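Board notes (copied after class):
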Amino acid sequence: MKIRFLGTGAAEGIPSFGCTCPRCQVARREGVPNARRRASLLVEAGGHRILLDTPPEIGTLLNQAEIFDLSAILLSHEHFDHIGGLTEFEYWNRVLPIFAGYDVLPKLRLTPRLAERALLSGFYSHTWLHFGDLRVMPFKVIHHVPCYGFAFEEAGVRVLHFSDSGPELGALHRHLIERADVAIFHTPTFEPYRSHISVQEVISLAQEYTIQRVIITHINHNNLLHDELVERTASYGITVAYDGLTLEV
Protein backbone atom coordinates (compact mmCIF):
# COMPACT_ATOMS: atom_id res chain seq x y z
CA MET A 1 0.00 0.00 0.00
CA LYS A 2 1.30 3.45 -0.93
CA ILE A 3 0.25 6.63 0.90
CA ARG A 4 0.85 10.01 -0.72
CA PHE A 5 0.32 13.21 1.26
CA LEU A 6 -0.77 15.71 -1.39
CA GLY A 7 -1.37 18.49 1.14
CA THR A 8 -0.72 18.60 4.89
CA GLY A 9 -2.07 21.98 6.04
CA ALA A 10 -5.10 22.74 8.18
CA ALA A 11 -8.07 24.89 7.14
CA GLU A 12 -6.00 28.05 6.64
CA GLY A 13 -3.10 26.42 4.84
CA ILE A 14 0.42 27.73 5.46
CA PRO A 15 1.14 30.51 4.72
CA SER A 16 -2.31 31.60 5.76
CA PHE A 17 -3.94 34.16 3.47
CA GLY A 18 -3.38 37.66 4.86
CA CYS A 19 -1.28 36.48 7.82
CA THR A 20 2.17 37.89 8.63
CA CYS A 21 2.96 35.73 11.66
CA PRO A 22 6.56 34.39 11.88
CA ARG A 23 5.60 30.88 10.71
CA CYS A 24 3.73 32.17 7.67
CA GLN A 25 6.68 34.39 6.78
CA VAL A 26 9.05 31.42 6.97
CA ALA A 27 6.69 29.41 4.75
CA ARG A 28 6.59 32.19 2.14
CA ARG A 29 10.35 32.54 2.20
CA GLU A 30 11.41 28.88 2.31
CA GLY A 31 8.49 26.84 0.92
CA VAL A 32 8.07 23.13 1.67
CA PRO A 33 8.17 21.58 4.26
CA ASN A 34 6.94 24.67 6.12
CA ALA A 35 4.56 25.70 3.33
CA ARG A 36 1.50 23.44 3.41
CA ARG A 37 -1.47 23.18 1.05
CA ARG A 38 -4.69 22.05 2.68
CA ALA A 39 -4.84 18.39 3.60
CA SER A 40 -5.57 15.63 1.11
CA LEU A 41 -4.35 12.05 0.92
CA LEU A 42 -4.02 9.47 -1.85
CA VAL A 43 -4.05 5.74 -1.04
CA GLU A 44 -2.84 3.36 -3.74
CA ALA A 45 -3.32 -0.38 -3.36
CA GLY A 46 -4.50 -3.35 -5.38
CA GLY A 47 -4.46 -1.37 -8.62
CA HIS A 48 -6.77 1.32 -7.20
CA ARG A 49 -6.23 4.97 -6.33
CA ILE A 50 -8.47 6.42 -3.63
CA LEU A 51 -8.45 10.17 -2.97
CA LEU A 52 -9.38 11.28 0.54
CA ASP A 53 -10.94 14.76 0.58
CA THR A 54 -10.89 17.55 -2.00
CA PRO A 55 -9.48 20.83 -0.65
CA PRO A 56 -9.91 23.98 -2.78
CA GLU A 57 -6.48 23.52 -4.41
CA ILE A 58 -7.02 19.85 -5.33
CA GLY A 59 -6.60 20.50 -9.05
CA THR A 60 -3.12 21.91 -8.50
CA LEU A 61 -2.22 19.09 -6.10
CA LEU A 62 -3.24 16.36 -8.55
CA ASN A 63 -1.42 18.06 -11.42
CA GLN A 64 1.76 18.38 -9.38
CA ALA A 65 1.56 14.72 -8.35
CA GLU A 66 0.77 13.70 -11.96
CA ILE A 67 -2.39 11.88 -10.92
CA PHE A 68 -4.64 11.45 -13.95
CA ASP A 69 -6.97 8.65 -12.85
CA LEU A 70 -8.86 7.86 -9.66
CA SER A 71 -10.93 4.87 -8.60
CA ALA A 72 -12.97 6.95 -6.15
CA ILE A 73 -13.11 9.98 -3.89
CA LEU A 74 -13.91 9.60 -0.18
CA LEU A 75 -15.18 12.69 1.65
CA SER A 76 -14.79 12.88 5.41
CA HIS A 77 -17.11 15.82 6.20
CA GLU A 78 -18.63 19.05 4.96
CA HIS A 79 -16.05 21.67 5.97
CA PHE A 80 -14.74 23.83 3.14
CA ASP A 81 -11.10 22.81 3.46
CA HIS A 82 -12.18 19.20 2.86
CA ILE A 83 -14.77 19.56 0.08
CA GLY A 84 -14.15 23.06 -1.31
CA GLY A 85 -12.39 21.70 -4.39
CA LEU A 86 -15.02 19.15 -5.35
CA THR A 87 -16.33 21.30 -8.21
CA GLU A 88 -12.83 21.20 -9.75
CA PHE A 89 -13.84 17.74 -10.96
CA GLU A 90 -16.52 19.07 -13.30
CA TYR A 91 -13.79 18.95 -15.96
CA TRP A 92 -12.56 15.47 -14.98
CA ASN A 93 -12.58 13.46 -18.18
CA ARG A 94 -14.36 10.34 -16.93
CA VAL A 95 -17.13 9.16 -14.62
CA LEU A 96 -16.11 9.63 -10.99
CA PRO A 97 -17.44 7.65 -7.99
CA ILE A 98 -17.79 9.91 -4.92
CA PHE A 99 -18.47 8.38 -1.50
CA ALA A 100 -19.66 10.26 1.60
CA GLY A 101 -21.66 9.50 4.72
CA TYR A 102 -25.43 9.67 4.31
CA ASP A 103 -25.37 12.62 6.73
CA VAL A 104 -22.69 14.36 4.62
CA LEU A 105 -24.17 13.85 1.14
CA PRO A 106 -26.90 16.54 1.58
CA LYS A 107 -24.17 19.12 2.27
CA LEU A 108 -22.48 18.63 -1.12
CA ARG A 109 -23.15 21.22 -3.80
CA LEU A 110 -22.44 19.96 -7.31
CA THR A 111 -22.43 22.02 -10.47
CA PRO A 112 -24.78 20.70 -13.19
CA ARG A 113 -21.76 19.57 -15.22
CA LEU A 114 -20.26 17.65 -12.29
CA ALA A 115 -23.64 16.12 -11.40
CA GLU A 116 -23.67 14.50 -14.84
CA ARG A 117 -20.24 12.92 -14.25
CA ALA A 118 -20.44 11.96 -10.57
CA LEU A 119 -21.66 8.67 -9.14
CA LEU A 120 -22.69 9.67 -5.61
CA SER A 121 -22.82 6.85 -3.07
CA GLY A 122 -23.63 7.05 0.62
CA PHE A 123 -22.10 4.94 3.33
CA TYR A 124 -22.82 4.10 6.96
CA SER A 125 -20.24 3.94 9.71
CA HIS A 126 -18.56 0.55 10.23
CA THR A 127 -19.52 -0.86 6.84
CA TRP A 128 -16.86 -2.01 4.37
CA LEU A 129 -16.29 -0.56 0.91
CA HIS A 130 -14.41 -2.84 -1.49
CA PHE A 131 -11.98 -1.78 -4.22
CA GLY A 132 -10.48 -5.04 -5.41
CA ASP A 133 -8.23 -6.30 -2.61
CA LEU A 134 -8.39 -2.94 -0.83
CA ARG A 135 -11.09 -2.62 1.84
CA VAL A 136 -12.13 0.67 3.41
CA MET A 137 -14.22 1.07 6.57
CA PRO A 138 -15.56 4.52 7.52
CA PHE A 139 -15.94 5.21 11.23
CA LYS A 140 -17.37 8.20 13.07
CA VAL A 141 -15.09 10.62 14.93
CA ILE A 142 -15.99 13.50 17.24
CA HIS A 143 -16.06 16.85 15.42
CA HIS A 144 -18.27 19.98 15.04
CA VAL A 145 -20.25 18.24 12.29
CA PRO A 146 -20.76 14.63 11.16
CA CYS A 147 -17.25 13.43 10.34
CA TYR A 148 -15.63 10.11 9.40
CA GLY A 149 -12.25 8.57 9.76
CA PHE A 150 -11.25 5.65 7.54
CA ALA A 151 -9.56 2.30 8.02
CA PHE A 152 -7.75 1.05 4.92
CA GLU A 153 -6.86 -2.66 4.79
CA GLU A 154 -4.98 -4.65 2.18
CA ALA A 155 -2.86 -7.82 2.42
CA GLY A 156 -3.02 -7.80 6.22
CA VAL A 157 -1.93 -4.15 6.53
CA ARG A 158 -4.17 -1.64 8.31
CA VAL A 159 -3.84 2.14 7.92
CA LEU A 160 -6.08 4.40 10.02
CA HIS A 161 -6.88 7.98 9.10
CA PHE A 162 -8.52 10.06 11.84
CA SER A 163 -9.94 12.92 9.76
CA ASP A 164 -10.28 16.07 11.93
CA SER A 165 -10.92 13.93 14.99
CA GLY A 166 -11.25 15.48 18.40
CA PRO A 167 -9.26 14.00 21.31
CA GLU A 168 -12.24 11.99 22.56
CA LEU A 169 -11.71 8.37 21.53
CA GLY A 170 -14.16 5.56 22.13
CA ALA A 171 -13.66 1.83 22.60
CA LEU A 172 -13.96 1.21 18.84
CA HIS A 173 -11.25 3.78 18.07
CA ARG A 174 -8.92 2.21 20.59
CA HIS A 175 -9.62 -1.28 19.25
CA LEU A 176 -8.74 -0.07 15.74
CA ILE A 177 -5.54 1.59 16.99
CA GLU A 178 -4.43 -1.58 18.79
CA ARG A 179 -4.44 -3.45 15.47
CA ALA A 180 -3.06 -0.65 13.27
CA ASP A 181 0.19 -0.64 11.35
CA VAL A 182 -0.11 3.08 10.64
CA ALA A 183 -2.27 5.72 12.35
CA ILE A 184 -2.62 9.20 10.83
CA PHE A 185 -3.94 12.09 12.93
CA HIS A 186 -4.96 15.67 12.08
CA THR A 187 -3.13 17.89 14.56
CA PRO A 188 -3.56 21.61 13.80
CA THR A 189 -1.87 22.68 17.05
CA PHE A 190 0.88 21.38 19.32
CA GLU A 191 -0.95 21.94 22.60
CA PRO A 192 -4.59 20.92 23.25
CA TYR A 193 -6.98 23.37 21.62
CA ARG A 194 -10.70 23.12 20.95
CA SER A 195 -12.01 20.27 18.79
CA HIS A 196 -8.98 18.66 17.17
CA ILE A 197 -6.53 16.24 18.69
CA SER A 198 -3.20 17.94 19.39
CA VAL A 199 0.39 16.83 18.87
CA GLN A 200 0.79 16.44 22.63
CA GLU A 201 -2.25 14.16 22.79
CA VAL A 202 -0.93 12.07 19.87
CA ILE A 203 2.37 11.71 21.73
CA SER A 204 0.41 10.24 24.65
CA LEU A 205 -1.30 7.77 22.30
CA ALA A 206 2.04 6.78 20.76
CA GLN A 207 3.32 6.01 24.26
CA GLU A 208 0.19 4.04 25.16
CA TYR A 209 -0.09 1.86 22.05
CA THR A 210 2.37 -0.17 20.00
CA ILE A 211 1.90 1.21 16.50
CA GLN A 212 4.55 0.70 13.85
CA ARG A 213 4.14 4.26 12.57
CA VAL A 214 2.22 7.31 13.78
CA ILE A 215 1.90 10.25 11.38
CA ILE A 216 0.66 13.78 12.01
CA THR A 217 -0.75 16.06 9.32
CA HIS A 218 -3.35 18.89 8.93
CA ILE A 219 -0.98 21.35 10.64
CA ASN A 220 -1.74 25.06 10.98
CA HIS A 221 0.35 28.19 11.42
CA ASN A 222 -0.16 28.18 15.21
CA ASN A 223 1.83 24.95 15.40
CA LEU A 224 5.62 24.59 15.41
CA LEU A 225 7.79 24.80 12.30
CA HIS A 226 8.44 21.50 10.56
CA ASP A 227 11.95 20.92 11.91
CA GLU A 228 10.81 21.83 15.42
CA LEU A 229 7.96 19.32 15.18
CA VAL A 230 10.35 16.63 13.96
CA GLU A 231 12.69 17.34 16.88
CA ARG A 232 9.89 17.24 19.46
CA THR A 233 8.23 14.04 18.16
CA ALA A 234 11.02 11.85 16.72
CA SER A 235 11.79 10.08 20.00
CA TYR A 236 8.16 8.87 20.10
CA GLY A 237 8.32 7.32 16.63
CA ILE A 238 6.08 9.99 15.11
CA THR A 239 6.48 11.07 11.48
CA VAL A 240 5.65 14.69 10.62
CA ALA A 241 4.06 14.66 7.16
CA TYR A 242 4.86 17.33 4.60
CA ASP A 243 3.43 18.10 1.16
CA GLY A 244 4.61 15.42 -1.25
CA LEU A 245 5.61 12.82 1.35
CA THR A 246 5.16 9.28 -0.03
CA LEU A 247 5.27 6.16 2.13
CA GLU A 248 5.18 2.43 1.35
CA VAL A 249 3.39 0.40 4.01
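Comment from the instructor: Residues 199-208 form the longest helix (10 residues). The mean pLDDT is 96.
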